[in-house]
């Protein structure tokens, strides 16, 4: 585009260039020597630079392009002039057929002045719209077309154009189940039975059918109830025996905790008899010195052992090697005879073998039963889900002297939030956790900058 403009500009500067505007003079286009001004300074940019001649020239070029479709100097005489021979060779005016019911001739309708004003009179061709020729995803479409051509050459059908697999329609609607049939069966919308009215073929094609979930997802991880009911002894006004049973249960829990603490203390305790004294230390030192004096030179011992081993190793003769081969063959034959004899003996042991097989199957069944029982029992206990073990919550029990017999004066025990949190851990929904330990913040470090020194 820039090259075409440059070519037009060069052509316009030629001596034979014709102008259409009368206001532009040839003297202005071929002006003489301009005033020399220092253009390095910014104040002279807009003061001593006159671009009116350039603008007039470009406007004249644009006018020629609009009216004649190009520069007048480049046009031929036939394009610029025509021979006016009058109305002799004018084509006859075509008559318009009269409308029905109206006699006479009718002139051709003239265009409206509004349409004439809005009509494009410029001879400059409309620039090509590049965006109109762009196709979205053209690269992808070319790749798909190329792949389709390859499949067609191989005689294969693309997956997109393959026929869909048919699914058997089980609940096909009939005339008796139509909604406008008064004799159809009565449907109870509040009943327990759910009537499937959707077509499985439609559900498969529209992908609206529910996804089949894995069986383990619907299975409960624990059979422990969400809210456990406390023992009767935990009431605000319990029975005497129920309260004593609850106290005994709490007592057993505390005794168990105390035994575990005592066990840890016993393991960490230090026995005074095992401590080292001055006599035992002196005795150990003396024993070490005696052992050092009684030892021989290890190098001499090693040399003697090596010489003895070399003397014992001797090369075997051919007779000895032949005898070894015969003994090896004889041993293999003996083992084969024993194996064959053992197989024959097993024929007479069928009863004992059957009995052992029945006992093995019985033990296997017992292990399977025990394994299932353990799996069922695990559903009532908390599993190890993290690095911490589950610790049961302390029993909420009140002593005999703390019982008031009235709900208003009852002293509260435990926390509802903690109880719910422990219930989630016991039902294997969350792992046992500990309270996060907050780290202390770092101390603020003061630094004296250079600017501070300058002020002081």
TrEMBL record:
The keyword Nucleus applies. One of its GO terms (biological process) is ribosomal large subunit assembly. Keywords: Nucleus, Ribosome biogenesis. It comes from the Eukaryota. The keyword Heme does not apply. One of its GO terms (cellular component) is nucleolus. Pfam families: Nop53. Its main location: nucleus. May play a role in ribosome biogenesis. This is Ribosome biogenesis protein NOP53. It comes from Muraenolepis orangiensis (Patagonian moray cod).
